Amino acid sequence: MTTAHAPRTALRPAWSLTWLHTRYQFLETTRVPIAVLGNMLFPGLALLFFIVPQSAVADDPVAATAAVAQLGTFAIMSACMFTHGAGVAEDRAKPFDTYVRTLPARPAPRLAGRVLNGLLWAYLSLVPLVLAGVLLTAATLSPLQVLGAVAMVVGVAVPFTLLGLAIGYGLSVKAALAVVQATLFPLAFAGGLFMPPQFFPGWLDAVSQWLPSRAARDLVVQVTTGEPAGALALPVLIGWTLAFAALATWALRNDEGRRFH
Prior knowledge:
By secondary structure, the protein is an all-alpha fold. The protein has helices at residues 2-30, 33-51, 55-58, 61-92, 95-101, 108-136, 143-170, 173-190, 202-208, 212-225, 233-260.
């Protein structure tokens, strides 16, 4: 009887530690209000200034929904890359982080706490955008599309969380912040998150289809509007996810080896 229940009992401390790290990192993030406000308000303001005034887009249910989906993809990317890129690099520079990493607890709950914290902020960053889309445009979703959109948040967050972790564990604070900014915005522009790919010149459209941001955008738009995504979208997103996973693993192991051995 004791043996049968041992695995379940052993899991409890891990879940408890994961929740503890998630709560701690969430509170740490809220202590920088400007970062929180910037992450949550920018996509909604972009919708307000660039989409709502265009009645041809704002009053068309499909076009408005696609616009909200594109900006939502950017919001998720931004939340994940800043939380795990600049955030992890900043934590690594603190003496307390070094102390925590020398404790006998396994690193998995701490890493899981980071991922859950980033995912939570990704969902929160969508709230102002979705409210603006519902109240000020003709964007609409069926109940099934709502469920699909909620699930797609995780699908988009995974690769960009891994990219953020690779940057955060591989670079210093100043370098990580610069690299996140220099990576996020070009990926967003070239991925069709600010301007629909239909308006791209042919060469940019061809290049764009091989980017993770374009693949994520196309899949989110497909789920929310029913417009078919390109044949490359899913394989490209999976391929970049695997590449970012390998890069994040290398950066984490390199950091452990450099600082603790």
